[in-house]
Write a structure and sequence with these properties.
about 500 residues, alpha/beta, 2 domains, seven-stranded mixed β-sheet, about 20% strand, globular, Aldehyde_DH_Superfamily
């Protein structure tokens, strides 16, 4: 079922190359699937087909786009067994995780479909020809799709943030054709998802080129795609280093375009003393589960935990939990190598202690969980502590009191989430801390771990830099569609005339 080809303009094309194989991180071994490599010809075809599709797709009704999204979800569900099997092989994630992520992917497609069937009313102001001292013309504020959107699939969510994920779903809902650059860590899973979208496009008679998938291991192709004048927006989920490289390329374009990147976050937790005294055991268990889940490869994993200095009991429990944890396979050998080097740099930082590490071998894709600790003063002095280490590690920061916690909050970088654990009494007196944290995050949480993101209209998955490149928008939830629309005001047109979309 895996062809290893690109999907461009409604056709599968390209010759798979024996050097471009899929990989099994659990076995540290190559899988039998081979994939094509995109070049200049594919770049020309992709952009030409997506541009031609936009000329038609922008006129497709909201109802028809909703049917398209619903059909994609149905096609994904029909391929559930193959998709789950492929994802487990390519990622070392569990079948239960794959099934849950597939369900979330289908749910968010249907969420956008539902939004399209119940669109928000345009702002429509009637003419006031008799108004003094000047008459007012008729004014209607509508939204226009931007044009072809490039989506870079994420490594850590092969479904929900990849080929058929939220970026693709929201761009298609907006009326924009999509070009997905498949992630090299899960190309087979990417193709299976693309097959579902291709089948849905055929069944709902969407324009050829409305969705395209391309495989490319060479960074030069991704750079050329971002620079191409036919591309009108880019969505990316990944590292801060690569995200900022893409951002600089966009700034250098003759026509800069919108770029939404969800990048790094440490998702700090602030734990008040009364709460911790009452919930020591449950908090330790929840924290360890949140950090270790999926081998720590969640963008909302809590990597900084600000604790009262006297929190010795919870520290002892966490040492036990982390020491007993087994090494796990990360998504790729490169990600595992970065994790190990990041942990080594942290361990060698003055004032930082390695409290515990897990059991097992660390070769290839495998890594051991780690628990670190430092003082509040060390956190202020060592900038390395504000650099995300992607994987199953967290740092406990010991604070003398809540006032010191508030002071440390002021130096935090932008985050996807920030969490406060407190009793109701403590929460009532923590307004200064909450107000400060609100300046640094996209989602403020009370007494819950940050892992897990509800897909709904009220969700904000983004935040101040470096959590994202534009804190005004979200990558999750129905508001994500706004990234790929622009306002257009119609002035002095008769009612419902002058529409171009």
């Amino acid at each position: 079922m895996i062809t290893g080809q690109h999907y461009i303009g409604g056709h599968w094309c390209g010759e798979p190359q024996s050097t471009n194989t899929s990989f099994n991180p659990a076995q540290n071994a190559a899988l039998p699937w081979c994939f094509a490599e995109a070049g200049q010809a594919e770049l020309h075809s992709l952009t030409e087909q997506a541009s031609a599709a936009f000329a038609l797709y922008r006129y497709v009704t909201a109802s028809a786009r909703a049917d398209f999204l619903d059909t994609i979800a149905a096609e994904l569900e029909q391929r559930k067994a193959d998709i789950v099997s492929s994802m487990v092989l390519e990622t070392a994630l569990t079948a239960a995780r794959a099934e849950n992520e597939l369900g979330r992917t289908c749910n968010q497609l249907r969420l956008f479909a539902g939004e399209l069937r119940q669109p928000a009313n345009d702002c429509n102001l009637p003419a006031l020809p008799e108004r003094q001292p000047l008459p007012r013309p008729a004014l209607r504020l509508a939204k226009m799709p931007l044009g072809p959107v490039v989506v870079f699939a994420a490594s850590n969510f092969p479904l929900a943030f990849s080929v058929a994920g939220g970026d693709t779903a929201s761009a298609l809902a907006a009326g924009c054709p999509v070009i997905v650059k498949a992630h090299n860590a899960h190309p087979a899973t990417s193709e299976l998802a693309a097959q579902a979208i291709a089948a849905a496009a055929d069944k709902t008679a969407m324009p050829a080129g409305v969705f395209n998938l391309v495989h490319a291991r060479q960074h030069a192709f991704s750079e050329a795609l971002i620079r191409h004048p036919a591309v009108k927006a880019v969505a990316f989920t990944g590292s801060e280093q690569l995200g900022m490289h893409f951002q600089r390329l966009i700034w250098q374009r003759p026509e800069p375009i919108p770029f939404f990147a969800e990048m790094g976050s440490q998702n700090p937790l602030f734990v008040m003393p009364q709460y911790l005294a009452q919930h020591t055991e449950s908090f330790a268990s929840q924290l360890a589960q949140s950090v270790l889940n999926g081998c720590g490869q969640f963008c909302t994993r809590p990597a900084l935990v600000f604790l009262p200095k006297a929190a010795q009991a919870v520290k002892a429990q966490l040492i036990t939990l982390f020491s007993q944890a087994q090494a796990g396979a990360m998504l790729t050998a490169k990600i595992a190598s970065h994790y190990r080097s990041g942990c080594l740099a942290l361990q060698q930082t003055a004032g930082v202690s390695l409290l515990a590490q897990g059991q097992g071998d660390e070769s290839g894709c495998y890594t051991r969980p780690r628990l670190f600790a430092c003082s509040a003063n060390t956190f202020m002095q060592q900038s390395v502590l504000q650099q995300e280490i992607f994987g199953p590690a967290t740092v406990l920061i010991e604070c003398t009191d809540v006032t010191q916690m508030q002071m440390l909050a002021t130096i935090l970088q932008g985050q996807l989430t920030a969490t406060v654990y407190a009793t109701e009494t403590e929460l009532a007196t923590a307004s200064a801390l909450l107000q400060e944290l609100a300046l640094h995050c996209g989602r403020l949480i009370y007494n819950q771990m940050p892992t897990g993101v509800e897909v709904c209209a009220a969700m904000q998955h983004g935040g101040p830099f470096p959590a994202s490149t534009d804190s005004r928008y979200t990558a999750v939830g129905s508001q994500a569609v706004q990234r790929f629309l622009r306002p257009l005001c119609y002035q002095n047109f008769p009612s419902q005339n002058g529409d171009t979309a």
